[in-house]
Here is the input.
Amino acid sequence: MIEIILLVSSILFIFALKLFGRPSTAHRANTFAMLAMALAVFSAFNFDFSKYDSAFYITIVVSGLLGVLISKRVQMTQMPELVGLFNGFGGGASGAIAYVELSGNSLPISDVFVAIFSMVIGMFTFSGSLVAVMKLRGKLNNFSKKLADIFSVFLPTIIVIPAVLEMDDLLIEFIILVAIIAGVIRVAVIGGADMPVVIAFLNSLSGIAAMSAGFIVNSIILIVAGALVGASGIILTLLMCAAMNRTLLDVLKGGFGGTVINNEYEKDPVSTSPEDVAIQLSYAESVVIVPGYGMAVAQAQAAVKELTNTLKDKNIEVKFAIHPVAGRMPGHMNVLLAEVDIDYEDMFTLEDINSEFSSTDVVIVLGANDVVNPLARTDEDSPIYGMPILDVDLAKQVIVIKRSMSPGYAGIANPLFVNDNAKMLFADAKEGLENIIKSFELV
Amino acid sequence: MEATFLLTLLITFLASFIGYELISKIPQTLHTPLMSGSNAISGITLIAAILIYPEVGESQLLKIIVLIAIAFATLNIVGGFSVTGRILEMFKKND
Here is the structure.
């Protein structure tokens, strides 16, 4: 009976992934996955609920309620933090289970290695994710890379300490300590805009930790589901790396970005006013908006929607061009736009829209910078050379809404800002858009 | 569910392969709910916690650690699915 429940559960998980392939069916995927999870968890009890005491049930109920509460309260702009936090919880849970198995039972030697693996990956994910969350909240500045490198080299050697001091029974605890410190250091050196890669990578690790926990307790459904999560995280990690033309190793090494390398311009940018932008837009037939992290920071989604409606009412075509690494996690911009009811049919990926820029009348760059920097195409010495960018400089006119000329994450000047077809509207993303909308009413 | 180690490895490989094939087809626009959804699924480690909880024995410390694992995993599952549902609902409206 249990076997049949688990079989159904595994099949449901796979169908859930299949349904996830299209926005219109994806909400059903979630229902399938929930059902699969409920069956899998139910089967673990093996129809014997009396083996569990009240502490067990209270923990489940309280943390379940807490989960609902958090998920209802969280803002869509906080999704990267939430996913980061949950990655940490998943990893921490698997790591804790591996620890208990290691210190409690006498495991067969093959399982001991799997358990140590699961514990190290789980604890690394746990501490790394918590640091990632702090970084996303802006509570942690870039850790000195040099110091981190020195730490990384000496860290494994402290495992020797219990052996030398003949404290063999503390060996497991020392391994945990090393894994936790390693997670902290590794993520601490990586800058904010590389977080999409880090979050996806930690997501994958939380799946791998769960999968290896499945090997220890001999649960095939745990292995299957863990492997699915591991695969999903790896795919997203590689996609994000490709979108930055960097390798995973290079991202994890850290030390990229965050410092100003060169912010000099050959000429002064042309600044414009909300009124002029409104006039410019009202003569356009096609408009493409390029959202970036600046849109999320300024909470400008509602203003974006309002401007979109205004333009569409004037029969102007509006599209959204979304770079894969825009924002702080994969798909971050899409969710923010969907939240304000912008149709996903109007959101375009880099491959789908790049050929259209040359025939676009006006491009609005909203809080994005490095992902529209033409140096990625032309300057071989640039740190972003080779990164696929949105070719907005090819459009007829470009409006950049940005507070100042300060460089983006890569720390380099963006020649787009002084291009002949570009004008700067110096404002916060939300305020700038609202002023444009107001000006429309006067036009 | 017991199986020989090789069979388990085969299943692991097949699951990873199917996962890779299906997930590669998921469009960029759904990448955030994909992450929050797979977050929820990684909470499946709750099963391991349920399996080992009755066998922890006398040690209060180990029991507390398993309870922490249970709390983390449950939070992950419930919170993850709930927030994913919320996001996907926003995409559904647009049909």
In short: The mean pLDDT of chain B is 90. Chain B has four helices and no strands.
